[in-house]
Amino acid sequence: MAREKLIEMARENLGYVKAGTTQLRPDVLRVPAHHYFEADRFELEVERIFMRMPLMLAFSCELREPGSYKSMVAAGVPLFIVRGRDGAARAFLNSCAHRGAQVVPEGNGKARRFTCPYHAWSYDEKGALVGILDEDEFGEIDRGCHGLTPLPLSERAGFIWVGLRADCPVDFDVFLAGYDEALAHFGFEGWHLVSRREVAGPNWKIAYDGYLDLYHLPILHKDTFGPDFPNKAIYTPWGPHQRVSGPNPLLLDLEKKSEEEWPTEHLIGGVWTVFPHVSIATFNAGGAGVLVSQLFPGKEAGSSITVQNYLMAEEPDEAGREEAEKRVDLLEYVVREEDYATGLRQQQALRAGGRKEVLFGRNEGGGQRFHRWLDRLLATDDEDVNDALGAGDPLAD
Prior knowledge:
Elements: H1 3-19, E1 29-32, H2 39-50, E2 55-59, E3 68-74, E4 77-83, E5 89-93, E6 107-110, E7 114-115, E8 122-123, E9 129-131, H3 135-138, E10 150-151, E11 153-156, E12 159-162, H4 172-176, H5 179-183, E13 192-201, H6 204-211, H7 217-220, E14 234-238, E15 241-245, E16 271-274, E17 278-283, E18 289-297, E19 304-312, H8 318-351, E20 357-360, H9 365-378, H10 385-389
């Protein structure tokens, strides 16, 4: 994305600051309450959203060196990502071609070869089968047909997106809609992963609604950081992804300078959400730290897991790392004890059945757009999914 787009967003923000207004949709959106707890709906969301959309599963900085890998389970799918000696990142289903056992234990590490713990079949960083225990006694098989199953992967802007299906029908360019060009302004390729936590939460949509919502900040978070933030939001969409910012009076100082002098770090603040499961929240005004939250559905409709990753532009020293961990402690507390505790009670109340719908106001355009995207994609078959992703903003329908 050209720098001109960042300037355009800053000018829009300044317009709202000067007018004392914010973005408003024409109408209130009503979402059926059962969308948050119905089992059939949840299974369809996993199948048509999480199993079909590319998911942001790793950071380039986690896999800096050849042989470095990350193994995980995403939406029930075991997989691992590895950096090859040729510099390319690749993803594979974590399942041995012999009996299907998981080859690589969960976590990060470094290896030249990956050996199954069940019968010691081994694979290289390109997924090729390179070793069979007692091969002369096993029987004749074609090694070339028994490598690890590759998964589609794209590495852009310091992030690694992976499709959980080998036959993923989604075109990565159509899906990202240029959003990776916007994220490239952060320069995440050279950042450093400082901390990682996991937080259990409610239905994944209740959690994601919160990442798009500034309306609640000074209320729910009144005793933590809420008073420092406005409750008004400006949404900028790229396909199903959205950047969320609030009217920022600090931008008024930029008007004293030419646009060429506007610092990029002052133009990229806010919350950058990546559909369907990532929130990138900026801190320290200058972009020195970000909290990247990866949201995954749980085993049933009423649960989810969020992985909180804290990254810093500069690798901190011991004192800086201790300070960063204190910041992450606060962020974990806010999400666990304020956002998700409220969300779990919200879910319990909705499931009780007295409320038939939930409301997204005219000032909650991000939530309106998110749920419209869900409706569109859930109604779309594989052969039409790229057309659906490229069909434009569903709020314009």
